[in-house]
Amino acid sequence: MTSEQFFLIEKYMISCMSDSAHDKEHIYRVLYNALNIAEAENNVDYDVLVAACLLHDIARKEQFENPHICHAMYGGEKAYSFLISNGFDAKFADRVKHCIQTHRYRKNNQPQTVEAKILFDADKLDVCGAVGIARTLVYKGAVSDPLYNLSDDGTVSDGSGDISPSFFQEYKFKLENMYSRFYTAKGAELAKTRQQAAVDFYNSLYKEVNDTYKSGTDILKDIIE
């Protein structure tokens, strides 16, 4: 890939970014994660990988405005059209599209090529550890979801089995279970090094909130007749 091609794709990517949890810095982290993972793999087409990393979230705005749209599927088509219209050949554009359309976790649409598997892992790595916690909190704040929900008895729910969205619900439903979903050995290894940071944060936050509710409600009962 020439520098002109890289900067062309990068400029287009930046023009599509509007979500603070999926901003251009997320894109660069995914790209750098992917390059790190790719060093342990064979026969990687770096041109396809770099283009797919840069373009993998270009349809986040469309999904945010219409939740029925899958940003991965729509983004793959959007990337394909952009690449074709800017002189890239159809085979290259199609391989990039496959990477983008399979980077979102779906049982019936899994990555098949080495580049697609690397993108999947690099993107999921950015949901792990402290970075994943921070990005989730940013996103939850943007859509006005709470940190936690209360159970029917008034105690703080740890998020397990919750239907209503919250940070705790997202952690139990998604973040806690990310670490066994990697395709590459390098991706899994890097994720494992981040896991404890996320566990410690969640446990500390839950304990602080839960302890506050327990002690506070007991005191309130004593002072209210």
The gist of it:
This protein has helices at residues 3-16, 24-38, 46-55, 60-65, 71-85, 90-101, 114-125, 129-142, 167-173, 185-223. The protein has 225 residues and is mainly α.
Structural account:
This protein has 225 residues and is mainly alpha-helical. The chain has two domains: 1-123, Hypothetical protein af1432 (Orthogonal Bundle); 127-225, Methane Monooxygenase Hydroxylase, Chain G, domain 1 (Up-down Bundle). The chain is 64% helix and 0% strand. It starts with a helix and ends with a helix.
Characteristic key phrases:
225 residues, mainly alpha, Hypothetical protein af1432, Methane Monooxygenase Hydroxylase, Chain G, domain 1, 2 domains, 10 helices
Topology:
Elements (H helix, E strand, L loop, with lengths): L2 H14 L7 H15 L7 H10 L4 H6 L5 H15 L4 H12 L12 H12 L3 H14 L24 H7 L11 H39 L2
Contiguous uncertain segments of 5+ residues: none
Report, as a whole number of angstroms, the end-to-end distance. 74 Å
Query: So how many helices?
Result: 10
Report the order of strands and helices: HHHHHHHHHH
Instruction: Quickly count the domains.
Output: 2
User: Which CATH architecture of the largest domain would you pick?
Assistant: Orthogonal Bundle
CATH superfamily of the largest domain: Hypothetical protein af1432
Count of individual beta strands: 0
- The average pLDDT is 93
Shape: elongated
Strand content: under 5%
* Helix content bin: 55-70%
